[in-house]
Amino acid sequence: VSLELWHACAGPLISLPKRGSVVVYFPQGHFEHVSDYSAASSAPFDLPPHVFCRVADVKLHAEAASDEVYAQVSLVPETEQTEKKLLEGKIEGHGEEDVEVAAKSSTPHMFCKTLTASDTSTHGGFSVPRRAAEDCFPPLDYSQQRPSQELVAKDLHGLEWRFRHIYRGQPRRHLLTTGWSAFVNKKKLVSGDAVLFLRYELTPLKY
Amino acid sequence: VSLELWHACAGPLISLPKRGSVVVYFPQGHFEHVSDYSAASSAPFDLPPHVFCRVADVKLHAEAASDEVYAQVSLVPETEQTEKKLLEGKIEGHGEEDVEVAAKSSTPHMFCKTLTASDTSTHGGFSVPRRAAEDCFPPLDYSQQRPSQELVAKDLHGLEWRFRHIYRGQPRRHLLTTGWSAFVNKKKLVSGDAVLFLRYELTPLKY
DNA sequence: TTGTCGGCCGATCGCCGACAA
DNA sequence: TTGTCGGCGATCGGCCGACAA
Question: What highest taxon heads this organism's lineage (chains A, B) (predicted)?
Fold first, then answer.
């Protein structure tokens, strides 16, 4: 799973703890989340309100069926001694730095579009917003009458998708034609869904 | 879920305990089955080799995606005292009678066919074996040149499917045409799968 | 700038008997 | 008796500009 694509899908509000850092884990909240019980419901056992944990691993995933992104954070509880020292500030807990800070230098071009009825119908292809095509797609040879090229994109699972990108019509516009409908069908996209394209690892996906 | 259809799918070797009867439950076998561990693997706790249980409930189900049938049997452990009496024959345990004995009087007509390449291809419809059509389908008006009718069937989930049943060709034969391909697609049927039709609650399904 | 539409053409679906296994 | 095929018409998919929001 591409790091950039994963974060593009998760959105700017999502930050993940660094591996090796120390975090505070709230079992009560976790239990309520996974068990789908109301907050009024009681936990099956006596849960401590919070536990100091070391982040053993962070893995990025995407649902196979829906492309929904999520992260798997492996936690190892700290000993009570270590916990005490942490509270007194005697050990460095690595704080709140995000794991992706190193990747920030290569901010990739991207765009996101909510699909219209025309985009998802069987009647035609995908209308590419002008700015988006110019920012994110390789430039076309505009000297030709109907400039076109083949785009290759990878989704969250690394699967390849090929689209014909053409610039045509009066007035001129960018379109994805051949290959687009297959993508819509396989990803079960409907009007109102959004697609997100990322430059270089030029990548569309259902959002 | 139709009782008859469920048993037609499960096959004649499957019999279910009656509600209220007493059965012997083998936790070890259950554990190996659900955990997918090899027989060599050890259980997580000390399991008793067998437990006398009262059948609290029996529910028939079918997988939403595959139409695979299964039963959910709710068990309540018997007290040691009752267990002892049962072993000594002092209490009636209701034995091995099947829950469906009462339904045997109305043995419904049915047929099962393994799908051929032609049955599942997009080129045409479904060839109905002659005997099957005569046994299980409502009779046609053979005075007409191309007798036909609409069949309405329900699958394991109670969903309705409509098929055009026609008797035509040289030599004459029974076919399901309009509606058949939709069924093949939705149930993801391929050559080698089987369909099962049951009269009255005239019911096809993927097997 | 771009969402929807009519036009158009080719691909596929799906109904029909003809065969032959 | 029934599985596969060639045939064909109807439908649908999908590429094109026209047009207007």
Answer: Eukaryota
| Separation in Å: C16 C1' and B190 CA | 24
Protein-covered nucleotides on strand C (Cβ within 7 A): 1-7, 12-20
Strand D closer than 7 Å to the CB of A144?
A: no
Distance B1 CA to C13 C1' (A): 33
Whether any strand D atom is under 7 angstroms from the Cβ of B111: the reply reads: no
Distance of CA B143 to the CA centre of its chain: 37
pLDDT tens for A62-80 read 999 899 999 999 989 887 7
CA A181 to CA B52: how far, in whole Å? 58
Task: Give the C-alpha separation, B62 to A176, whole Å.
Answer: 42
Cis peptide before B77 (omega within 30 of 0): no
Q: In the 8-state DSSP scheme, what is residue A124?
A: S
B163 and B197 Cβ atoms separated by less than 8 Å? no
What positions of strand D are covered by protein, i.e. any atom < 7 Å from a CB? 1-7, 12-20
Task: Round to whole Å and give the CA distance between B181 and B117.
Answer: 13
Residue stretches of chain A with pLDDT short of 70: 1, 34-46, 88-108, 200-207
